[in-house]
């Protein structure tokens, strides 16, 4: 039996390793290094520039929480802009809502989408839904030029140390604000509080969002294959409060099947430990 | 520079590794293999039979949550039994409450206590508090023979696959029930839902507690150095509900300093994801 391990650097002195059965595919695109693997315990998984993006075993956690928290805050969301998210998991969750009319998805690297359709159909299965429009371009440019108005923007990006860098700038957030409706919500991948390398990026992202949006906070998920397992998502909006505006009965009446998200965890996820509140100056 | 790594097996195909500066100490006692390490990122940390128990970097999370959740549920707790917990972190948190009169701590392996006093004074600093009585014996035997009545029992044990095995039996839980007051609470280390090896033990522990206690549930913490980072603690009691009986103002009036625990997270920690509810048949 091949003794093959994928190892990710989680912090200066921490490593996380998964035993791999097959290295399915490898490609260097103009944007990043893409690799797909198969493992017995995690199923298929893929990495960008050596960082795990999605594993079949735990992708439901991230995709539930980046999607259903905003959808459970404003049940009238009809037009959604998704930035990044090439694996398709976020779009898959959004298509569960019949009342969503339009999903524009902007992914810089078309190869991610095409390869996920081949190796990760579990997440990429709804990218050809008729409400979905795929744009293969830079999200930063897209929001700068957009004349559209959205109810929700989901920024499902890589880390700011990679091709995702532009999606963590004040300029980007300002343009998001501009193209959001008066009831608009932005949710984004927001790094992590535990390891120094992610913590500094988390703090910067939060400060920028707080400077632009009247409401800006973060919520947490248990994501075992992301560094420390304690991962953050950002919630920013023009008027909706994620706790006060969540109506459990209303969301439950939609009968949407989820493996992680529910009304209790919608609220519980915003209960931050003291050390995170301190870091964020909250 | 020495390229030395401590590596822990988190599941069949998952490994977690910390870069080590010095292997401070190693000893095989009649009960287990004990090792202390020093690392730049985690400070000192120690392992039992190759599993991380405590690191200076994240011990505050576990010790806050195993202690302040029951203390924040019943503010009248005066007599506490702690089983395991040789590192002293749980006792350190308990001694912050002036109204606690007595803490009996039962640790099977005296060497753990003595070595933690040497290498981990950050957790072991209150073991000689005058309210603390140390018993170096098997917790299973202690509760069987005890004539004492406690308001709170904290089972801060290793995993059931090791010397901690007896502390996961129905017989043990029954004796805990017997020596708890009518307002008694039991909190225990409760494994994890994500990896199969821990999941089966979590389910068994919960079923047993549910058979004995009128109220039995679990709550979750973000513990980066435990497998998956998604760790569980069990809460069982004769009449106190951890949510309904938590009074934020009352707890806050005690002015106890915590780095993880607060009233929001007291409640938020009990908000379980659907897949965990399913596993536990809740």
Automatic annotation (TrEMBL), chains A, B:
The active site is at residue 156. S-methyl-5'-thioadenosine binds at residues 32, 107, 138-139. CDD domains: AdoMet_MTases (cd02440). Its EC number is 2.5.1.16. It catalyses: S-adenosyl 3-(methylsulfanyl)propylamine + putrescine = S-methyl-5'-thioadenosine + spermidine + H(+). Pathway: Amine and polyamine biosynthesis; spermidine biosynthesis; spermidine from putrescine: step 1/1. Signal peptide: none annotated. Spermidine binds at residues 63, 87, 156-159. GO terms for cellular component: cytosol. GO terms for molecular function: spermidine synthase activity. One of its GO terms (biological process) is spermidine biosynthetic process. Residues 3-238 form the PABS domain. Keywords: Polyamine biosynthesis, Spermidine biosynthesis, Transferase. It comes from the Bacteria. Homodimer or homotetramer. Belongs to the spermidine/spermine synthase family. Catalyzes the irreversible transfer of a propylamine group from the amino donor S-adenosylmethioninamine (decarboxy-AdoMet) to putrescine (1,4-diaminobutane) to yield spermidine. This is Polyamine aminopropyltransferase. It comes from Cetobacterium ceti. The gene is speE.
